[in-house]
Amino acid sequence: MIEEARIKKNLKKFAFPRLSGTKFELEAFNKIIEEIENLNLQFEVQGFTFSSFYSRIYPKITFLSVSLILLLLYLNISMIYSTIIILTLFGIVITSIIFTRKPEKIQIIPRFNSQNLLVKIKPLSNEIKNKERIALFMSHVDSKGQRFKVGFRIKIVKFWIASSIILIFIVILKNLIIIGFELIFYIIGLFPLIFNIFSSILMLLNTTDNSSNGAIDNASGIACNLELVNYYCIPENRLQNYHIWFLFTGAEECGTMGIRHFYNNLENFDPNKSLIFNFESIAKYVFLWLGENEGDHAKDIDHKLLNNKRNLPISHYPAERVLGTHSDGGFLGDRGLQGFGIGGVESYAYMHTPNDTIDKINVKILEKLCLVLTDSLKEHDANLNV
Hints:
CATH class of the largest domain: Alpha Beta
Number of helices: 11
Strand content: 5-15%
Number of strands: 10
Radius of gyration: 23 Å
Shape: elongated
Number of domains: 2
Structural class: alpha/beta
Largest sheet: 8 strands, mixed
CATH architecture of the largest domain: 3-Layer(aba) Sandwich
CATH superfamily of the largest domain: Zn peptidases
């Protein structure tokens, strides 16, 4: 059965700094393997290597290069030299974008080692009609600390985007449309230019380290995932029509490297009949992030989750993707897989900081969430046999 005490125990076990690619992340993986072995379940370890270029260096190069291009266009001085510099910076941006189309294949040194852990549990019956139906529960294992909080970083990106758009319009008006009023546009453009350059400087100053315990992000997800492993390893709790997979990914905080490796090697997974549940940073409230064009099976689960009988308030969160943010669920959703991101938004004040600690989490909420998920899947599964 679902046990609050076991969830709390696992929260304590995994709430320690575990930066991707370090011995601390590996320590967390080994602890998960111990839990799985104690349940006598088979598992698969998917090792991979990755570079931190995509997550930690590429955004800084791109944002700074674009800011410098806008600065030169705004100043409009020394046409020959400005053109050379602008073309060089533009080349850097385009090259970086092309280079990072498949970031998991980047070979820039240094490279780090990480791994995914996959557990598969078969349905009750070996004669199900749709063997490709899979319910995939997943959570990432690594954590990270950063100089600035998540909410503040999102505001920096939004300020940068808004100021860039305003500057582009001002440059076009000043140089191509309204000739003779350059001084007015120089004055008007000064404010968004300052915001733009200041935002780029802040991005450069934002560093990544191993200072966060990662209790919310994402020991809470690990604890929920392990609790459901404990539940579904009991034969009578298994589903009739779904295989159940549990995935623990590595290096999510370094550009979703683990889920990229998993997806590139994924076989026998029908996205139109399967469901994904991605546990991502749950503290005291539960929100659902939905993918686009959900099928009837996903809509049915969604209805059951929102109208659960465990008195657990669950809300939809508006789909909003901010440039520069990554998540395992978002990656799979962009590729047409159906399911739910399960997390909270109030936790942004603590994520990626030393304040991301266990006391910020309501363990009872995690217990109820696991109960609601098992209730909903059981009812949904039973209806497939009618």
